[in-house]
Structure to design on (123 residues):
């Protein structure tokens, strides 16, 4: 039960922060969903740093992983919004935005995890 509570608390914080970033950056003036893009890449960086650090420390603390990686990063990042925004790009025939957003998110997200693991070695 404690583990589920940790995921719940982390997910709540992650979701609220994602909401505020989305409200701030996903405006009517912006045709590109910067908020979702940034939280997905930043979430990838955070999960890389956290898991990279947790893997190195002894003993491994699953509670931190559940709170931050599963909970916070799970609530903070948003694949469903990413999928919806891509569907809208395709529906409106905006193939350049679709390719930029999709490839940018995937490539930068994976790169951010690698950077996160590298940064975790500095702690």
């Amino acid at each position: 039960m404690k583990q589920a509570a940790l995921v719940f608390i982390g997910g709540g914080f992650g979701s609220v922060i994602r909401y505020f970033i989305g409200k701030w950056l996903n405006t009517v003036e912006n045709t590109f969903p910067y908020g979702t893009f940034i939280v997905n890449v930043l979430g990838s960086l955070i999960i890389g740093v956290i898991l990279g650090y947790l893997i190195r420390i002894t003993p491994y603390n699953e509670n931190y992983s559940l709170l931050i990686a599963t909970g916070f990063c799970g609530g903070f990042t948003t694949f469903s919004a990413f999928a919806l925004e891509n569907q809208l790009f395709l529906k409106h025939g905006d193939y350049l935005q679709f390719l930029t957003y999709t490839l940018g998110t995937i490539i930068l997200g994976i790169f951010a995890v690698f950077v996160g693991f590298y940064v975790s070695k500095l702690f």
About this structure: Residues 95-120 form the longest helix (26 residues). DSSP finds five helices and no strands in the chain. Helices lie at 2-25, 34-56, 62-76, 79-91, 95-120. The mean pLDDT is 93.
